[in-house]
Each structure stands twice: as C-alpha cells, then as structure tokens.
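pasting for the record
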Amino acid sequence: MDLWRTYVRDVLTLLQSRPVRGAVNVWTTYLKDEYNRFEKTPLAIPKKGDVIIWGTGYGPYGHIAIFVEGNLLRFKSFDQNSPLGSVCHIQSHSYRHVLGWIRPKTDIIVNTEMIISDDNDKIDFKGFKTEEETYGILTLQTLKSKILAKDTLISSHNSLKKAFKKATGTIFDMGEEINQKNAEIKALKNNKFGFFTTLGRAVDQVLKLRADDKREKS
C-alpha cells in the first residue's frame, strides 16, 4: 500500500482515498471523481500508469501495483511486497485474481525505464506514517518537473521584480522631468509677464516724450 499512496501523492498529485485494511479495498473506496474503474475482461488491456487491483484470491489483503506493459495474457507492473517483503521492482504477472484497474482521469507520464535496485540509491519518502522506506523511481520524473517548475517560477518572479523596479524608476524619472518642465514653464511665464511690464513702461515713456515734444513745438 505504501507504493500506491506514494504514487498518488508524488506522481498523480491527487487526493488520497480513505485508509483501508488491505489493497483489495481500494477497488471499492477509490475516489470516483479522480479515477475511472475498469473490470477485468478477456479482451481488455490496461494502459501504462493504470493501478491494477487484485482480489483476496491473491492473498488475504489482495494486492495493488502500477501497470507498465502487457498483452491479453500477461503483463508487467511496478510492484512492492510481491513476492512478500520485496522492495519496489518490475514484476511479471498473469491476470489471475485481478479484479480490474483504475485509471486517473487526468493524463500522466510514467517513466519506468530507470529502476533503482541499488540499496544506496533508495528513496526515503519523508512524511510517511509508516516506518518502511519506499524504493523506486516513479516519483523522480515528477520531482524533477516540480523542481524545474519552481525554478521557472522563481526566474519569472525575479524578472517581474526587475521589470517593476525598472518601470518604477522610469515613472520616478518621468515625474522628475515633469516637475522640471513645470518649473521651466513657470519661469517662462514670469519672464513673459516681466517682459510685457517692461515693454509697457517703455511705451509709456515714448508716448510721454512725444507729448512733451508736441507741447514744446506749439
């Protein structure tokens, strides 16, 4: 069940179904909003990433695994605890005791080409309620994607910060330039009024001189 829970959490990134006694109970407790269920038939073949569920004919608690590839007679799946006590690995099966499979309603990409078999490369999924360690690489592609997405988000955020800072600086500079232009306009207005005042006085003086000249001639 650890493999199933990890697959849901780290690969499918879907909600977990309620706790159950054994893998066979997932057949009836799966989240219907997240998965479609397919009963085993002689002409049905699961798709890569489907979750295969065995009944109690396989064992008292059934079994659950992730489908990799197969045909109408046999298939390979990503298993844990099959055989009993084994770590995650690719296992060959017949369809005996298989109830069917559930398929996520959203598209997924499952990379099963790299299988970790070395104890030194085991993955410890922290936060799990059990003390068992889960082996395998089904989560590696998802973790890599999450890291890349995070890096992209951080890069975009930094770009936005730089763009905002640049835009803010531009707006500030424009404000300073506007204030400067307003000061120049005000100075020009003052100079304009001073010019016309001086011109008016000069005209008055000219007119006065002409009047004085006329009086003297008369």
